[in-house]
Write a structure and sequence with these properties.
181 residues; alpha+beta; Yope Regulator, Chain: A; 6-stranded antiparallel sheet; 6 strands; globular; disordered N terminus
């Protein structure tokens, strides 16, 4: 049931079908408690009841995509990460495109390189993280992994002022060249 909520959220961001119900309780917008590792784990377990908690790390999947959430309550930080590919062989042109996407289409998620891998990541202070922000972060992080090599998008929006709109327009123009109407 909880996966249905995530499916609904993903569909709002432009990638999956509409859901009807969820096991994740809606937070009271007036009085949402600070995020803790325990509360974070409860939300994630409602998404994937097979999630594995090891210390401050939670491993789970969202529609066959592995997700890793790492927390450090003492530093008040959390990081949601999705592995995308080996960083070996990333060329300058692609690295530039990733940086452009970080500016305008990845939204709150980001592309990052660490430990020899390209990742989709979301980083946030732990205590200030609200449930809806977490769900949105998971959606965006999964989406940057899904759209890698294509639209490089965390969702359905493009934050203006970057290069992606021009890149998308160039692609549209190129596709139109081969069309006969």
């Amino acid at each position: 049931m909880a996966r249905l909520l995530l499916t609904l959220i993903l569909s709002v961001f432009g990638s999956l079908s509409v859901a009807q119900q969820s096991d994740i309780p809606a937070p009271d917008p007036q009085l949402e408690p600070p995020m803790t590792l325990e509360r974070l784990a409860d939300i994630i377990l409602a998404i994937d009841e097979e999630a594995q908690l090891r210390g401050g790390t939670i491993e789970f999947t969202i529609e066959d995509i592995p997700v890793l959430v790492v927390t450090d309550p003492r530093a008040d930080r959390m990081r949601a990460m999705v592995p995308i590919r080996s960083a070996e062989g990333l060329e300058a042109e692609e690295l530039l495109r990733l940086m452009q996407a970080n500016f305008d289409t990845a939204l709150d998620a980001r592309y990052a390189v660490a430990q020899g891998r390209l990742w989709g990541v979301f980083i946030h202070p732990l205590a200030a993280l609200e449930q809806d922000q977490l769900l949105s972060a998971l959606v965006q992080t999964v989406n940057v992994a899904r759209t890698y090599g294509q639209t490089y998008s965390g969702g359905a929006q493009v934050f203006g002022g970057g290069d992606s709109n021009e890149i998308y327009q160039d692609l549209l123009d190129e596709l139109r060249k081969g069309q006969t109407l």
